[in-house]
């Protein structure tokens, strides 16, 4: 188990519970024979995952309003769009290390 509490400027606290690791219901997870419902998966599949839930991200005041916490220059958001930069970065590192790999590798 893990957990952490961070204090952000202005006295705002961010509490990171010990509920990880979980694959969120909105992810593109593979089949899980133990749990085929829309609840969080019990088995970690696929083998590569990236953080995408409750992510602090850059924010524009002209952006959408459906975020969990809104600041002036940042917001807490969740979704596959929050995980995509991590996966793209890892793909770039793999391609750098193994330039002969193809998408089917």
UniProtKB/TrEMBL annotation:
For this UniProt record, give its keywords in alphabetical order, as a comma-separated list. Answer: Hydrolase, Protease, Serine protease, Signal
Q: Which InterPro entries match?
A: Peptidase_S8/S53_dom, Peptidase_S8/S53_dom_sf, Peptidase_S8_Ser-AS, SBT
SUPFAM superfamilies, per the entry: Subtilisin-like
User: Which Pfam families does this one have?
Assistant: Peptidase_S8
Instruction: Give GO BP annotations, semicolon-separated.
Output: proteolysis
> Quick check: keyword Signal in the entry?
yes
Q: Where is the Peptidase S8/S53 domain?
A: 18-104
Superkingdom, according to UniProt? Eukaryota
GO MF annotations, alphabetized: serine-type endopeptidase activity
Question: What family name appears in the similarity comment?
Answer: Belongs to the peptidase S8 family.
PANTHER family noted in UniProt? PROPROTEIN CONVERTASE SUBTILISIN/KEXIN
Q: What is this protein called?
A: Subtilisin-like protease SBT2.2
């Amino acid at each position: 188990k893990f957990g952490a509490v961070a204090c952000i400027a202005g006295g705002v606290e961010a509490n990171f519970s010990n509920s990880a690791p979980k694959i969120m219901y909105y992810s593109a997870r593979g089949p899980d024979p133990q749990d085929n419902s829309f609840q969080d998966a019990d088995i970690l599949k696929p083998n590569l995952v990236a953080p995408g839930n409750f992510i602090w991200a850059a924010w524009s005041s002209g952006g959408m309003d459906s975020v969990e916490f809104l600041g002036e220059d940042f917001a807490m958001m969740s979704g596959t769009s929050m995980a995509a930069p991590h996966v793209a970065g890892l793909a770039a590192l793999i391609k750098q290390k193994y330039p002969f790999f193809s998408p089917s590798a």
